[in-house]
Amino acid sequence: MQLVRVLFSKRVSISCLRVLALMSLCALLSSTITLYRTPKVFALQAKPPTDWSFYISSASTSTAYNLGCNQGHFDAGHSPVINSEVVLDFGEQYYSDGSGGVLLLSGIQISNAQVQAVTEAFARGYWICTGNDSTSTLYLAIGINNYGNATSASGTTWGNNVAAAQAYNKSMGYTSQVVMFGANDIESWCPSNCVSPSAVISWVNGFSSVSGGYKYFDFGSADGCPQYSSNNGGCNGAWNQYYYWYLSWGATAALALPEIYYPAQAQQWAMISLYGAQYRSAPVYMQGPMDEYDLDNTTLTASQAWNDLWTDLNNNSATAQSLSFSVEIHNE
Amino acid sequence: MKKRARVHHTKFSTTRPRPQHMRSWSNMRWLLVASGCFVAFICMLGVANAAQNNGSAAPTLAQKMQGAQQMLIDGRAHTHTKLVNQNQAPAVQSTPVRQAGILNIGQGPFPQSTFAVYNFWQGPVGNDWVLAYAGVKMNANGTAGLGGIVLYTETVNDQGGVDLHPLGTFLAPNGTPDLTITTRQGNLLLLHSKVGQQLAFNLVSHQFQ
């Protein structure tokens, strides 16, 4: 009885009150630290199978069909089946309104109709070669770069290419497994021909004006951007972190599939994402890294690119995220 | 002295019990600290929650992909039969038309971060179709290095497509910066740099002259 009285005595109550005050103080301090978003360590997300993207060097629809067929076999061959993401890179648009088609990286000029035909052949190859599997999905992007003629008109032309391929695929039934996107290798292109970011924003506006709500992947690099700071630092040319954030995520149609050829590029993109989290509406949520080890074995492998990008993003809770795809660029 | 000693005694003595009103004040103080911390903690939780809600007001990746998912759903609502046992490959196309000459291409089939392309020439050299990308080799730190040429040969494959075969990267001598192709003369590509140097590159021996 005396013990109970002691337990509920004023003195013990006061001691409890002091402990409670200290605990509250600790909780306050820890929550403050959490709000400042200190680095967190998570278990590395396993890399999914790597999908092949291509620098298209001809208008050959049979080549495109076979490449799509390879991807279809690949996806359907997994158990359970997997989805994939592929960019077909058609070089640069010809003429300021894009009406001249494209100039492939191999120096061959092809028309917009040929761009669509190659894309549709790839989609058909995928659809046919998934065979009895009808659930695997290909996110297929028609890509271009912003080196030459990035204007509102050329953006609209590119959006129309995407819409035309989607409409054709729908008429043929491929859209049960293939969804079309645009893509743009958005870079500053310094030092050879520094391109203005406002020109690419015009391209994006033109692309977005095409009805259908199509999205595009920004599969470029952020050359010269800061690797360790996120306060809208400058990059090569007239670019800064804001422009890369806007063009890879901030714009309604934008999705990010960044080039991660070197460790520094993962850091640059992580800082762009952090800039978005701190100063804009959101970080950049990325599809995954694009590597190019097949074309240059001095650059990061698909696993290294994945690990670097994922780690740099998830080192900070403000940019922490899961990635969906691993993509590697190849020659056709 | 007396007064000072008494104050000292009152503050630090552990043997004498403190007056009742002092103890009440001390308890009150702790109570205030505890309630202050608690309120601040609750406020902090509120701020964190608001920040999280603000973040979710911006589109998520899933929301941005919603349109694509809808296209997929629409596509699956009208499925077509796959003729999986037939050869569905398109017929092989004819060889693509290639025109020799200089083009304003800004990218080769390699990363800009390793070699920035200023312009491009393609044409026949002996029995080969050669692609030459002129520009500047980029250093690992992103600065421009020496000017040079990246060479490929291009062959047409049995699908009507083309295959690229790298011949190598050839850097200009004497610290020459970025190069641009101006013309072709026989087996020579004539180039100039931004500092006014004129060079010639032999397309057969793969050497600068």
Structure description:
- Chain A has nine helices and ten strands.
- Chain A has 332 residues and is α/β, with parallel strands linked by helices.
- In chain A, strands 1, 2, 3, 4, 5, 6, 7, 8, 9 and 10 form a ten-stranded mixed sheet that branches.
- In chain A, a hairpin with an 8-residue loop joins strand 2 (84-93) and strand 3 (102-103).
- The longest helix of chain A has 26 residues, at 10-35.
- The mean pLDDT of chain A is 91.
- Residues 5-13 and 49-56 of chain B have low confidence and may be disordered.
- Chain B has helices at residues 2-12, 20-57, 61-64, 66-77, and strands at residues 101-103, 115-125, 128-138, 144-156, 162-171, 179-185, 188-193, 198-202, 207-208.
- By secondary structure, chain B is α+β, with helices and mostly antiparallel strands.
- Chain B has two domains: 2-54; 101-208, no CATH class.
- Chains A and B meet through helix 2, helix 3, helix 4, helix 5 and strand 6 of A and helix 2, helix 4, strand 2, strand 3 and strand 5 of B.
